[in-house]
Design brief:
By secondary structure, the protein is mainly alpha-helical. It has helices spanning 18-42, 48-65, 77-105, 116-129, 132-143, 147-171, 175-183, 188-222, 230-239, 243-271; strands spanning 2-5, 11-14. It contains ten helices and two strands, in the order E-E-H-H-H-H-H-H-H-H-H-H. It has a two-stranded antiparallel ribbon.
């Protein structure tokens, strides 16, 4: 059976033809075959003895993580501050770079749709295609371990995100307002200030705050590749099997993310 919509929008039913039923069964059979093949490829190197023993190992590790080592908190304030700085400064740098890129990428504001726009879109796509951890690995190799590598990694990752959402917002503006301002004889800077920017300002603020919230989460793990922050303390504790310290760091990361979510929600509510 299949759903049939009439001219008046009423729902009805009609029988599938024999050929349609065969194609439907063939599609389901192909889906099952692909699923089975994918499962075999995914599990071909799996050691099932380890899988069956996983619950016991997890229980053992979680048992060692409790209670958290609260005395270790004094050594986490600086990494926590570094994490917040990595996310905040990385987001600010990305905003400064991505905003002009967005105007160059939008169809209604780009100076050249044949040359400039494709080049800028390539930059935006390249930024979004590479994960922050990969940027962190590359930058740690170039700049050495530390907060600077983390800030630049967050910025490079965020440029594509902010640029893409912002240029889409620019393309969706009401052109009649822009044309009305141009008709008054305003020069391009005035058109930008009074015709385009006020229309995209709410979207810009929302995108910036949302990306900062994402960067708080990403910056907490950049230390795993040597880019500073709480991740560096987490890696050190994992390497020494200091499970009570690991649990405390995980709690701090969770609290930081929850706080950033709360702040982001309050800011977005104020903007909207």
């Amino acid at each position: 059976m299949a759903v049939l919509l009439g001219e008046d929008g009423a729902r009805g039913w009609r029988l599938l033809t024999a050929e349609q039923r065969r194609w439907r069964w063939f599609a389901w059979l192909a889906l099952v075959a692909v699923t089975v093949l994918s499962w075999r490829v995914m599990t071909q190197d799996t050691i099932w003895a380890f899988v069956s023993d996983a619950p016991r190992q997890a229980q053992d590790i979680f048992g060692r993580m409790l209670p958290p080592r609260w005395s270790y908190m004094d050594r986490l304030w600086q990494p926590l501050w570094d994490t917040i700085n990595i996310a905040t400064l990385g987001t600010l740098i990305a905003i400064v770079i991505a905003t002009p890129l967005a105007f160059l990428a939008a169809r209604n504001t780009t100076p050249s749709a044949l040359f400039v726009r494709p080049v800028v879109l390539f930059i935006i796509v390249a930024s979004r295609s590479i994960n922050a951890l990969i940027w962190g690995l590359l930058l740690v190799a170039v700049l050495g371990p530390g907060v600077l590598a983390g800030i630049i990694a967050i910025a490079l990752r965020s440029i594509g995100f902010i640029g893409k959402l912002l240029y889409e917002a620019i393309e969706e503006i009401d052109e009649t307002q822009v044309e009305a301002i141009r008709a008054t004889g305003a020069h391009p800077a005035q058109v930008m200030s009074y015709g385009i920017w006020p229309q995209i300002l709410p979207a810009f603020a929302t995108i910036a705050v949302f990306r900062w919230d994402i960067n708080i989460r990403e910056s907490t793990v950049l230390g795993l590749v040597g880019a500073g922050g709480l991740g560096l303390a987490l890696e050190s504790s994992l390497n020494t099997l200091a499970w009570p310290q690991v649990s405390l760091i995980l709690l701090i990361i969770l609290g930081t993310v929850v706080l950033s979510e709360w702040l982001t929600a309050r800011v977005r509510k104020a903007i909207i």
